[in-house]
Amino acid sequence: MNDTDTVMSNYERNRQARAKLSEGNKGAVFDALAAGNITHVQVEFNGEGDQGQIESVIAFRGEDRSELPQATIREHNVSWGSVEPVATESTLESAIETLCYDYLEEAHGGWENNDGAYGEFHLDVAKRTVELEFNGRFTDTFTSNHTF
User: Fold this and answer.
1) What DSSP line would sit under 73-104, residue for residue?
2) Structural domain includes residue 146
3) Tens digit of pLDDT for each residue in 79-96?
4) Is residue 145 part of a domain?
5) What phi, psi does 25 have (nearest 5°)?
6) Residues of the domain holding 32
């Protein structure tokens, strides 16, 4: 294989390992949210110019805002260039952020580059689903030349 093939093969192996681990991490997050009687969570993100971040993680019990439970989550992640999982302990909020960053990378890798993107994740605890509303930004140019 040439260097490009090797890089792409390694990238794909890492992507598949992260996707598999995300399912387990998702289960741990939803278990902790359900134990804390949280019904849904809204996560906002924003980025551009090669930088991006989670801006807020807001939990709800029904229609009322609530604090996230003070739970510790055991996450499993892989580093870039690796497929070997590493277990870490983190707060529930940090685990939610990691899960959302992983889903952003999976669905819209490079979302923070150039004009960037913004949006929201919606975690529905009863359905155990994560929905992503993604808004990609771009610069548009319209050029018109006329000779009369």
Assistant:
1) EEEEE--TT----EEEEEEHHHHHHHHHHHHH
2) no
3) 877 778 899 999 999 999
4) no
5) -65, -40
6) 3-136
